[in-house]
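Input:
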Amino acid sequence: MTTTAPVTTGRRAPRDGSPAGPVPGGPRRRPGRLRRTALPYLLLLPALLFELLVHLAPMVIGVVMSFKELTQYFIRDWGAAPWSGLGNYRVSVDFDGPVGEELLRSFFVTVGFTVLSVALCWLIGTAAAVCMQDTFRGRGLLRALFLVPYALPVYAAVITWVFMFQHDNGLVNHVLHDQLGLTDKPSFWLLGDNAFVALLTVSVWKGWPFAFLIVMAGLQNIPKDLYEAAALDGAGTWQQIRRITLPSLSAVNQVLVLVLFLWTFNDFNTPYVLFGKTAPASADLISVHIYQESFATWNFGRGSAMSVLLLLFLLVVTGVYLAVTSRGRRTARA
Amino acid sequence: MAPPRSFLWTRRIVLTLLTAFVLLPVYVMVSSSLKPLADVTGTFRWLPSSLTVRPYIDIWSTVPLAKYFVNSLIVAGAATVCSVVIAIFAAYAVSRYDFRGKRVFTVTVLSTQMFPGILFLLPLFLIYVNIGNATGIALFGSRGGLILTYLTFSLPFSIWMLIGYFDSVPRDLDEAALVDGCGPLKALFRVVVPAAVPGIVAVAVYAFMTAWGEVLFASVMTNDTTRTLAVGLQGYSTLYDVYWNQIMAASLVVSVPVVAGFLLLQRYLVAGLTAGAVK
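Output:
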């Protein structure tokens, strides 16, 4: 590939090599010092302000809301809503009650869906990237092609899948039933248990190119001489893939799997366009479930409590994941 | 040494299957958009019974697609420009300066990726409504509110990627500029930014795609005049008859700008990821 990127190996060198880096703390004993030390903060200010306004402040408010009895009567003046202590949380985790039971079911559906989707996306993306590591005719074209699902706007792509999954006039039933005769009668793909398969298919179709993109970028950082040395030692292509390519990707994979997991777990766009406001039970992902719970019942306090629980879960999973994988990688290297 | 046949065959099979998987919906989208209505209401046909461009004419009148298109362009364009500029400043600070709270900043920014959108949808809605009531700046329902929201969606990833990219621009370059008497900002725009154009392009593509494709906030935070494509496209299916040929034509029309832009610039994205994010 002809990359216009500057020489990437130069990245670490200047920072470690030159002890007189430009500004740790600003050049002392000079006038302008205050301005120099304030500069990085000034540069960060816009990013901080916007992040604060759109991400952090709403999160704090969301947590506050989760302790309130915030129903439609208090939308205009949400400060006036009565406090409900842990009431919203109690309802949400009361797995014998209808609300908690459905939340728990939605949670398990989401976990199962996420694990399968991330595994498939990673597997396909890695396989494709490894297949396309060497140059061959048509490689550039194929790469562009594989990135199309990632580039398409979610709604345009998912609407196309909705059309393909239609009962009467869709492509999937036409192929499986009319042409191959695999099913006795045309199936409903967007209802009942099939909806899970449909959702998984769309999610993998949409998600694997991202894994492909990241793994492909990661592959370019593997030094070529590793392969040359292995070839000299008599290692074949398969062995090179197993011994060099896959182990070299472990750092990339650590972040990639985490990002895929978080995006898939929180995905709202795909199920929302695929099923509309109410998803079938088998494909009732947690984001849509909470959205529905909030807007159908206008009980935003409870919806917030559920979101906070979701965030806590993701925080714990992320923390444990990073701790375990970082240790695993350290021991592997030692 | 040439790879063994087993590898070549595996590669051929994997790549063929993937091509089919990727292309199937694309084929359905393109072919159905050229079919007369009868072809898309009856049993699926691989080939159109006759070709027509009628759907491409009708999409503009069935729903106000042009208006949605303009809204999406304004929102995604403005969000991209703002996000990229803000990310350049932030990434430059992190890449070139040591300061207290640097680590806290990068970790906090990245961890916002973890938040479920649903958690801050409603609070954000309340904040925008309250800002509107207090200051008269209409954020809720306006394009401005959506721009503000979207620019922060792409900001964490953009900053993260640009930090890596700026780190790969040799420091001697901007140090030389500083010695020559440039101010830090001048050094940033005269030296670092030009050297990091591929990374910046990649970030811009990402930011535009993010804003162009978002559904959740667009469905809550827009009204009839500010509706974007993400929501507007659903107008075709709420009609009594579902005009699948028009839906496919409209999907294709709204996809072309982003897909074309993305494919043209994807090599920068790969280069940017290689230099920054995956190291």
